[in-house]
Description:
Elements: E1 3-6, H1 11-14, E2 32-35, H2 46-49, H3 51-54, E3 58-61, H4 64-70, E4 82-84, E5 100-103, H5 131-140, H6 143-152, E6 155-158, E7 177-179, H7 186-192, E8 195-197, H8 203-209
Parallel strand pairs: 1-2, 2-3, 3-4, 5-6, 5-8, 6-7
Amino acid sequence: ADKIISSSGGEYVINPFGGVNRRYLADLMNFDYIFLQHGVIMNDLSAWLQKFNKNISMFITSTRMEYESIAETNYLYDSEEVALTGLARFDELNNKAEKLVVVLPTWRRSIKESYDSETKSVYYDKFNETDYYKFYNSLINHPRLMEKMKEKGYKGLFCLHPIHKEQYRDFEANDVFDINAGFVDYKDIFSRAAFLITDYSSVAFDFAYLRKP
Length: 213
């Protein structure tokens, strides 16, 4: 390939040889890697995405501050290798808000048994013993939250990150909160939800883009 264009920064995108160390094969792979991103970067990810690890030919960014945080810093890219374009995921976002509260936590690297080497979800039978599970399951079943949502006429939807998606069956639905099974139609949820609860997921920026709380 002359170019590999992807929204993922995973090793599997640029290394077709799987577990083989890419450094020994680098001279066989002569392509431009265009990284579209799949969310606004709000933390320092330079240890993962810096030039000597990924060698990104064009790094897409969405805001001036994000652009400046990538270009000519610890990521080791110069300004010619970073583009300020906005993200494609924002192009068709619209606001058709209903009385829906959506809970969208991101994944946890520490729960290693819940995903494989390509960060694809696999079911982990002790997931319900993790603090992550206990916190979010208790949140969506919290009596005060449920009572207030019923009073105001709101419904809720809990959506796991795709890396943990197989664990949806562990969570307890109720007459206020539904549990999303499988993949998430983010465009639809961003449009319909009136309110977002998250931890440190970049989906917060999609809601901010739509001027929603």
